[in-house]
């Protein structure tokens, strides 16, 4: 089974993160059942409660993980998460 990693880069998105991550997970459940999929919320420098919300999402769904990148930048977040997943992931994507 192919392993898919979808990265959700976030910055100061405490208000919409839980709903968006939940909707993405529901979509994956419905449309990616033939894959071993995961979602990684990649926070890169949020100053609000985004980190707390992201950690709560990981508790609600075991297929959602969280990564914190100190420096801002979507490219940095994607690079870090994808590099960490080399060898354990077949398909990389981001939203």
SSE layout and pairing:
Layout: E1 3-10, H1 17-31, E2 36-43, H2 50-60, E3 64-68, H3 74-85, E4 91-94
Parallel strand pairs: 1-2, 1-4, 2-3
Helix pairs in contact: 1-2
Polypeptide structure, described:
The protein has 95 residues and is of the alpha/beta class. The chain has three helices and four strands, in the order βαβαβαβ. A four-stranded parallel beta sheet has the order 3-2-1-4, with helices on both faces. The two termini are 22 Å apart. The model has no long low-confidence stretch (mean pLDDT 96).
In the sheet with the most strands, the strands line up as: 3-2-1-4
Per DSSP, what share of the residues sits in E-state strands of 2 or more residues?
25-35%
Order of H and E elements: EHEHEHE
Shape: globular
Major beta-sheet overview:
4 strands, parallel
**Distance between the ends:** 22 Å
Q: What brief labels describe this structure?
A:
globular, 4 strands, 3 helices, 95 residues, alpha/beta, 26% strand, four-stranded parallel beta sheet
What's this entry about, in short?
The protein has helices at 17-31, 50-60, 74-85; strands at 3-10, 36-43, 64-68, 91-94.
């Amino acid at each position: 089974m192919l392993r898919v990693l979808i990265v959700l880069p976030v910055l100061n998105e405490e208000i919409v993160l839980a709903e968006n991550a939940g909707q993405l997970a529901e979509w994956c459940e419905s449309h990616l059942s033939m894959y071993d999929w995961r979602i990684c919320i990649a926070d890169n420098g949020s100053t609000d409660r985004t980190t707390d919300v992201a950690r709560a999402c990981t508790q609600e769904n075991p297929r959602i993980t969280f990564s914190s990148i100190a420096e801002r930048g979507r490219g940095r977040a994607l690079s870090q998460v994808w590099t960490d997943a080399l060898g354990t992931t077949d398909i990389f994507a981001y939203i």
